[in-house]
């Protein structure tokens, strides 16, 4: 897409994505690289407003189809206002989640909606990261980590452990589908070891 490098982190809730995104940013800073650390849903004022709609409230608040539209709307704003400008400026963009989350969360967990996700993505986003780190983790450990934070944004964690098991399978499948950009990372290790593994793979 542009001169910079676009990196995303993916995985189930509580797998350590935010921690590793931050540690990669620290590593890039030490290397003297310019970067933008961002997240989805969110990463721009408009997308953060949509974040509040999708992540709070009753688990049944939105259907999966409505969520596809909301997450994609947030992503479009994020892309226009934050990601593209940073890449054009030659920066590394580190995004805590991107379109793969919609493929897995909305595309596979409540019926097979993957085709709708892919068609809307092609029409409205049309961009993939250069590199995607998929952090793999036992859902029982990850869920206890995630809920321990009690962020108030627990709508998806509230779907429970079976839902997280389905998500894990979805993310593993994703690595097989996109082998050229996805790298599977074992999240059951010391955070510093995981970070060293990840930063060694970033050019
Ligand atoms: P995510 O962004 O995937 O939800 P976080 O990075 O926020 O995950 O991590 C969830 C919780 O687990 C946090 O309290 C964090 O400090 C802790 N954590 C992150 N990575 C590890 C790790 N490798 N080992 C143990 N705890 C971790
Ligand atoms: P996030 O803040 O990364 O949560 P966590 O730190 O618990 O992993 O993401 C918020 C939730 O939004 C998370 O449960 C995954 C969900 N989500 C989707 O369902 N679809 C999407 O497209 C995105 C980006 C996130």
Descriptive key words:
single chain, 203 residues, alpha/beta, Rossmann fold, five-stranded parallel beta sheet, 5 strands, binds adenosine-5'-diphosphate, binds thymidine-5'-diphosphate
Class by SSE composition: alpha/beta
What is the helical fraction, as a range of percent?
Answer: 40-55%
Q: What's the CATH architecture name?
A: 3-Layer(aba) Sandwich
Q: What's the count of strands?
A: 5
Q: How much strand?
A: 5-15%
Mean of residue pLDDT values: 93
Please name the CATH topology.
Rossmann fold
Bound molecules: adenosine-5'-diphosphate, thymidine-5'-diphosphate
Largest sheet: 5 strands, parallel
Poorly predicted ranges (pLDDT <50, ≥5 residues)? none
Query: Which value, in Å, is the CA radius of gyration?
Result: 16 Å
- Going across the major beta sheet, what is the strand order? 2-3-1-4-5
The named CATH superfamily: P-loop containing nucleotide triphosphate hydrolases
Whole-number total of structural domains: 1
Q: Can you identify the CATH class?
A: Alpha Beta
What's the quick description here?
Helices cover 54% and strands 14% of the residues. By secondary structure, the chain is an alpha/beta fold. The radius of gyration is 16 Å and the shape is globular.
Helix-strand layout with pairing:
Elements: E1 5-11, H1 17-30, E2 35-39, H2 45-55, H3 64-88, E3 92-96, H4 99-108, H5 114-124, E4 131-136, H6 139-149, H7 161-177, E5 182-186, H8 191-200
Parallel strand pairs: 1-3, 1-4, 2-3, 4-5
Helix pairs in contact: 1-8, 2-3, 3-4, 3-5, 4-5, 4-7
This protein binds adenosine-5'-diphosphate and thymidine-5'-diphosphate.
The site of thymidine-5'-diphosphate (TYD) has 16 residues, from helix 1 and helix 4.
